[in-house]
Amino acid sequence: MHSWLNEIFIGLSLTSILLMVALGLAIIYGTMGVINLAHGQFVMIGAYVAWFLQSQFGIGIIVGLPLIFIAGALLGLAVERTIIQRLYTRPLDTILATWGIGIVLEQLVRGLFGSDSRYVARPEFLDGNLILAGVHMSYYRLFIIGFALLTLAVTWFLLFRTEFGTKLRAVIQNKEISECYGVSANRVYAVTFAYGAGLAAIAGALITPMVSVTPTMGTGVVVDAFLVVIVGGVGSIVGTAAAALMIGEATAWLSYLLSETTARILILLGVIVLIRFRPQGLFPDKVRR
Amino acid sequence: MKRRDLLKGVAFAGVAGATGLGGFPGIWTGRNAAWAAGSDIPVGVLFSKTGAVAVVESTLHDACMMAIEEINDNGGINGRKIRPFVEDPASDPATFADRANRLVRRDKVVSIFGSYTSSSRQAVLPVVEGQNNLYWYPTLYEGRECSRNVMYGGAVPNQQQQDFVPWLKEKFGGRFYLLGNNYVYPREENNVARKILKGIGGEVVNEEYVPMGHDSFSSIVSKLRRDKPDVIFCTLVGDSDVAFQREYHNAGLDPKTMPVASLTRSEIEVKAIGGEAAAGHFSSAPYFMGYQSAENKKFVEAYLKKYGQDQVTHFVNEAAYSQVYQFKNAVERIGSGELKPSAIRDAAVGQRFMAPQGEIEIADNLHSYLWPKIGQWQADGQAKVLVDSKSRMAPEPYWAYEGQECTAEGLQKS
User: Fold this and answer.
1) What is this model's ipTM?
2) Which of A41, A166, B116, B245 has the fewest CB atoms inside 10 Å of its own CB, making it the most exposed?
């Protein structure tokens, strides 16, 4: 049987989802050192926007992606301008603040839409499976893998090939000196936070056909995303991608060979051992803080 | 009698006489004025409207409140209205215990209707046992409990499985893959399933538990492809059940050869899964929304009218609804006697009530005789009842444990 090929594919599929969620988190942390505990709720908001668009206007997930990104980004922008911005000098307090924001968002959604689990349909043209060399690959999962790679490429392009990216990297390396050169760190922060939130919202929309959409869905998602960011080394895109791949594949293999519960235990143990010996993660960025 | 008390009594008699209540003697004799004859009957309603399990539990609250309103609109019980004291325990067992305590001590309720999860029931248990109050628990659960202060309205494992497992084996084959969330309920149910399978010559090809809320099932699907079981015997709950069934459907597995047979999937989960992905699979429960009976038609119509056409009724909120009526029947039977929780319990035993699922009866062991059914999910999100039990099935909460039996005297060990 081709079960090992199958597991590689499943691992890739898990990787793509982890990557989508973790990327936004990694960028926000890497840039401004804010540990955004509301990230899971941004993911949840994305899922609800997808549900809302589909149930109210009949707009499918994929067509709706730009709108979902914009909605997430606007929300991120609002949160950054009103709250996070005032806390850049107190990084520890941002943990509490973002935790609170997360709770507020969750209750807001519950208040507006109730706590029922919502159903979002998969795009029809992605129904079915591609069976190649005995490997069952659902078209939708293939699409997510492709989309995650695209997001990674766009993010890389944004960081290393645009003027904004140059400014962003300058701010990451040394905020004060960058400001001396006329870079507005505040604006860079705002845009970055919005971008990260937008990515989270897209990730939320893309996972809707596979999970159930509830106000609490973000909490579980964000734990894995944090694992990825910690293993990868905060703020490093390459690290995030590599860590997502490691954790995704390890989850797929261990849960196939052992059981889901054991897999989870072993992975968390692995992460603990890893940060014992490499506290900065696999690919730490060389930044002055 | 002290002068001050006498004055108060006279004043009260005046008020009572003026308003035509006429309940003065009753109030005078009972120190706990709240359940004196002639006044309202205080009950607690303890279902989470916020927190993790609010999705399901709020529908139990709705059904319970609907029954209370119906009874009050029809003149109450023996001319007395039910007065619900509503608390929101926020899906947290410790809060459940705290609110139950408040209901019993401060509001002097004679019964509490509440809980969806076993953990919240177990948190309330010491409170109702310590205060000798009565807790009406509507959910199916894993059995192995025999409190004299809990009225168990839902199915126990033997009621869901005794017909179901042999039926599945006959129809699809005896190789079962047991899949559940990792906590007490799935483990106890699978324990029973193993025992039944052993008796009828079936086998368990794999038994797997995933953490609560787990939502990535691609590896499980690979294992299903590898093991090729005849039946996936499923006790996943909530989000895990939804994610698993969607994954199963995405992977293109076929319910005709490898059906999912669930003990926990109701109309609520199917709504979130999507009818198309759930179609063709099976559930065993005493009640389905699509069950054809006059009582059910009335129940569903009233529920949808009250809470919206997009709502569903299911096997737990049906029980939450019926339990209020069982409470009513018990109180009616007591008549003008003193309304104590223990008296209500004793009056409830043996009571029959024509519930939406059929005529149910409260057993000596405070569990319920129910009508187990096997339903097959259809693309419209409703279950078609394929098999309806021929008789009321007795609840045996210790079915899998030889030498232990739950009776009217509590747990007996031989």
Assistant:
1) 0.76
2) A166
